[in-house]
Amino acid sequence: LEGNDGMELALKYFNPFDNLLCILLGISFTVWFTLLLVFIIVPAIFGVSFGIRQLYMKTLLKIFEWATHRIERGAKDNNHLLYKPYSNGDGSNRDLDHASEFEMSDIFYFCRQGVESIMDDEVTKRFSAEELESWNLLTRSNYNFQHISLRLTVLWGLGVVIRYGFLLPLRVTLAFTGVGLLVVLTSIIGFLPNGRMKNFLSEQVHLMCYRICVRALTAIITYHDSENKPKNGGICVANHTSPIDVIILASDGCYAMVGQIHGGLMGVIQKSMVKACPHIWFERSEVKDRHLVAKRLSDHVEDKTKLPILIFPEGTCINNTSVMMFKKGSFEIGSTVYPVAIKYDPRFGDAFWNSSQFGMVNYLLRMMSSWAIVCSVWYLPPMTREEGEDAVQFANRVKAAIARQGGLVDLLWDGGLKRGKVKDTFKEEQQKLYSKMLVGTQEDRSRS
Amino acid sequence: MGSRASTLLREEEIEEIKKETGFSHSQITRLYSRFTSLDKGENGTLSREDFQRIPELAINPLGDRIINAFFPEGEDQVNFRGFMRTLAHFRPIEDNEKNKDPIASEPLNSRSNKLLFAFRLYDLDRDDKISRDELLQVLRMMVGVNISDEQLGSIADRTIQEADQNGDNSISFNEFIKVGNFLIFCIFGNMNYYLT
């Protein structure tokens, strides 16, 4: 009997709490959603900003400065080298110039170059995330920063809680909202008859959804020189660091995307987008056919009512410290090229997608659990191919302009080296240079 | 990628490598980070393909020979110790090292060890002599297809003539030292700024 009484008492105590709990949960959800709507989604629709993200960024910077200061002090006490030294070998031919006949020691020159490239080379490091000079409280970018103080570790722990407990769910919700709206609204617009109304609505819908996605990543973007924004009938080229590049550019202007049709969710998004506005999607089999690709692109740019095409000529993601070889295909078409330079600030989260290390979903989760994505976008003045310039030279000229503006290293190496082998022609060039040096002297000797 | 560097290399190992090669603590952790980034198979050793993946090394005419120098006789994998031991040859010679323990064995980056490294690039069969054939092989690697066999042959003959002192038509290590010595410091000395 007493047991039963105890049970009844217990139930009496739990029930009101139960109700209370439900009410509290309900209220907090409503509040949360209202805040979300007011502060994030509505501004996204109209393209205005409350400046919340800028404030967030400034606060974070102050915290990082303090953290770095503490780490530097700690490192000095323990006598550790903290920052990765930057190597800038010039690879000059100085040592071979004076040697005009073969000497046994000529191998030292190639030997040194070889061992230097083993210790550090210009290419392979472009395919992995840049190493930071200061720590941004994310373990993933931790190069040499060991446990220094309790306060720092607590701060890091707090960071983990905030990022995974608060920011990540918020961002994931926003991402789903943005993508969902994009698919639904573009499908609806697809039913409208072709004309100015349809184009206008399609542009607005695309912009709105991309803006929501920008907020879903807490991307803080600064656009420079917007007077040079790409116009209809042109091709916009930019350096490629991650799939987020598309979202960053497309939230500030309307572009026709180019790409291969994927399966799954990506394919669904692509198919619905093309209903509202003529994007250029290729089947896998068509991608290999260069003439077909070129034809479709040139047909598109000739139609001045269609939006400018967005292309990433590197063909693969590079880690945003350099710009690698541009594939000449988009430069052969002959329309105006609008170069755009995108530079990410790695202090808040590294945006580079290392596709051999992470899949797409994993990558997006990492992005959404970083502090923020901070980047600068420069719209460079339009360029056209000059007389007597071939596609490759034109591509290199555009690439140099982008590298200069973004503060990136301009490399001639092909981004395809991420996965493929280097062509033998480069080695043959080196051999030719060396031979010229030797043979030159032989001819002199035979003459004398 | 970066965070794996210090955690997998224990302090005792770093100390041992320090004693053996003379690299500093920070140089060792930096090179370990480089080693792991080259090790795509993530099994703690590098194969020849891992080296070939470095484009600047793949286009080096002597690339294969240099890579070979890292692998002990007949082996296909090199671990971090072996990697560091080979790289130690390229550490610049410091004056204060000469005053250290005179009984200790010769450091890896001593002048004669550097020359021995270069000698071995030529002397593939390890018979301590560079024959005309071995010299021709290296020459051919450096010039590619741009010089005819006859011309190359005469370059090789002239070189052996100048260096050979005991008339056996090949170059021994002592003869090699006399030919190669003076450039060592100009060239190998420059490695420093990669290692500070």
Automatic annotation (TrEMBL), chain A:
One of its GO terms (cellular component) is endoplasmic reticulum. SMART domains: PlsC. Pfam families: Acyltransferase. One of its GO terms (molecular function) is glycerol-3-phosphate O-acyltransferase activity. Residues 234-345 form the Phospholipid/glycerol acyltransferase domain. The keyword Magnesium does not apply. InterPro entries: LPCAT1-like, Plipid/glycerol_acylTrfase. GO terms for biological process: phospholipid biosynthetic process; triglyceride biosynthetic process. Pathway: Lipid metabolism; Phospholipid metabolism. It is found in: Membrane. Its main location: membrane. Keywords: Acyltransferase, Lipid biosynthesis, Lipid metabolism, Membrane, Phospholipid biosynthesis, Phospholipid metabolism, Transferase, Transmembrane, Transmembrane helix. The chain crosses the membrane at residues 20-52, 148-166, 172-192. Belongs to the 1-acyl-sn-glycerol-3-phosphate acyltransferase family. This is Glycerol-3-phosphate acyltransferase 4. It comes from Oncorhynchus kisutch.
Automatic annotation (TrEMBL), chain B:
The gene is CHP1. GO terms for molecular function: calcium ion binding. CDD domains: EFh. It is found in: Cell membrane; Cytoplasm; Nucleus. This is Calcineurin like EF-hand protein 1. Residues 26-61, 110-145, 151-186 form the EF-hand domain. The keyword Lipoprotein applies. GO terms for cellular component: cytoplasm; nucleus; plasma membrane. It holds the Pfam family EF-hand_7. SUPFAM superfamilies: EF-hand (SSF47473). Its main location: membrane. Keywords: Calcium, Cell membrane, Cytoplasm, Lipoprotein, Membrane, Metal-binding, Myristate, Nucleus, Phosphoprotein, Protein transport, Repeat, Transport. GO terms for biological process: protein transport. It comes from Oncorhynchus kisutch.
